[in-house]
Design a protein that fits this description.
single chain, 444 residues, alpha/beta, 5-stranded parallel sheet, 11 helices, 24% helix, binds flavin-adenine dinucleotide
Length: 444
Amino acid sequence: MKVIIVGGVAAGMSAAAKLKRANKEAQITVYEKSRHVSFGACGLPYFVGNFFEDSQKMIARTVEQFNASGITVNIEHEVLNVDTDNKCITVKNLLTGETFTDTYDKLMIATGASAIIPPINNVDLKHVYTLKSMEDGEALKHAMQNEALKRVAIVGAGFIGLEVVEAAKQYGKEVHVFQLNDRVLVDTFDKEITDLLEEELRTHDVHLHLSQTVTELVGDQAVTQIKTNDETFDVDIVVLTAGVRPNTSFLKDTKIEMLRNGALVIDHEGRTSIEDIYAAGDCASINHILKPEPAYIPLATVANKMGRIIGENLAGAHHTFNGSLASACLKVMNLEAGRTGLSEQEAMNLGINYKTVFITDMNQTSYYPGQSKINVKLIYNADTKVILGGQIVGRKDAVQRVNVLATAIFAGLTTDQLAMLDLCYAPPFARTWDVLNIAGSVAK
Ligand code: FAD
């Protein structure tokens, strides 16, 4: 059986490695456009912030290691199109410029997503960056290390944008964040949580420009100013972090089903609408445990899991993914924040009769060093009390508690059950009644 995988990072290489283990005879060829495979982009903000120096630490396995395991990896090869009738792809060798075709029995699309470039004039000026690839990270880090470049503008206050804030602050830069909406992380967290995150950013002298549309960058060669609909600011570095778009335009001539943003629609086994073509990761949809429609959740967690399942299914299995809860977390300066399941807005959009509870408590005992506030929001079904979503922010152990909520939602627990859940306790970690017990109890 001849399997071709397009895109060699989280989803693609998880599938390749799993398939090779499950079926040693499978002939697996990977085509990857960039110079790297198995690259963990999640490390990029911390590489840029110089939390570590060697960019190679973001590579989980090298091309040579994959080739030695019997998987043929072709880097700097871009797949230009797919002929689904003849099961044939056209590939361009980016080093030589040569174009050739290859055929498959089964094909997996794992081409990820690209940074969205918002409609802003002059984004091609020097010192304007995105943060998606290793090369992006190296270029941005180089700029951050230049002491003459003092003011950093970040356009888009999503996960990556706010992680770049911390990176820039590591160098003592003056940081400005521009956000179209009236609050940060608007698609993922509710206002009670983002209010606290914004307060944390302001405490660290981060200038938040909310409800601002960036229209233009100004400069001769390098950027020197950023203009919004209201104001103009002097800047030396601009980072565009306005979200991502699936890399699926090379499939536009096929009849493959896509979501409105271009993500390939897949079923629970990872199959697209075209026979023998699978897809996973940032280029594809994913089933959401609490939503009826396929969702778009571009996260490494989902990409790795669906990739592995596809690897098994390419070997003949019919494994299915449980579904995502869009569980995600980030660090905003000294705060941890995490979310899982439905936000209040999502529960509202789905027409669910929901209730919420928001509490502020302490993460641990007062007498052991490190006590700090922790804030929990629960979203739950008003009729059944089943927990639908949770968001937590605090200085210590907030994120690991979100994992407890993810487990609770997966298991269908109610707020009453959360109130009495036997969570562990010792003075450095919690109080006898953990903050999650209290949140469940308040919801009762
Ligand atoms: P990608 O990693 O994007 O890989 C797709 C590959 O396909 C690319 O290498 C690309 O070159 C290649 N390709 C594209 N088109 C073609 C073509 N036509 N032919 C050949 N090759 C092609 N997720 C988390 O869960 N937690 C985090 O903390 C987190 N932090 C992040 C921080 C940053 C800065 C970024 C950018 C992302 C972060 N993510 C995080 C998201 C995570 O990195 C992605 O969800 C994950 O990489 C998706 O894997 P993938 O295999 O689907 O796609």
